[in-house]
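User: Design a sequence. Structure:
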């Protein structure tokens, strides 16, 4: 689904346009909330234990999180408006930017292997024990960002 927002709406169509944008923002926030709630079956401490004693379970979790992150980024990308001409579009742009940074704040190379992703996750959990209280889905994003940070434009 691609949401196309332009400035050329007839005056009578503006309420409908705003309703569509509001609905899109609510849907995105709900999707992020559901993803967060579903990740709570497991704690980051549990994941750290798997890293130490059951590497195959840690790898399976890492693979699932990588797939979920890719799916979430695809969904967020589909909500991007074509224009930032009005305040509703600006709010949508800001919401997608925040979601994208939370979920995909890394520049993992396309040829990264599952072993490399699992190593990055397990090493992060080992090196940053204070972050083990956070939801594992967020820890996964932090671990990937730490291992494969994006270059800042200069």
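Assistant: Done.
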């Amino acid at each position: 689904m691609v949401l196309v927002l332009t400035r050329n709406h007839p005056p009578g169509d503006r309420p409908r346009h705003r309703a569509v944008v509001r609905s899109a923002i609510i849907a995105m926030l709900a999707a992020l909330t559901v993803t967060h709630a579903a990740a709570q079956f497991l704690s980051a401490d549990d994941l750290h234990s798997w890293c130490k004693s059951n590497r195959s379970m840690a790898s399976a979790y890492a693979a699932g999180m990588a797939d979920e992150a890719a799916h979430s980024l695809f969904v967020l990308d589909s909500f991007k408006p074509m224009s930032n001409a009005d305040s509703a579009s600006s709010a949508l742009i800001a919401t997608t930017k925040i979601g994208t940074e939370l979920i995909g704040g890394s520049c993992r190379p396309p040829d990264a292997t599952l072993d490399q992703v699992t190593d990055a996750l397990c090493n992060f959990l080992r090196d940053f024990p204070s972050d083990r209280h956070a939801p594992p889905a967020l820890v996964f994003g932090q671990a990937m960002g730490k291992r494969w940070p994006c270059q800042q434009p200069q």
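Helices lie at 14-38, 44-53, 55-78, 87-104, 114-127, 136-147. The CA atoms of residues 1 and 78 lie 6 Å apart.
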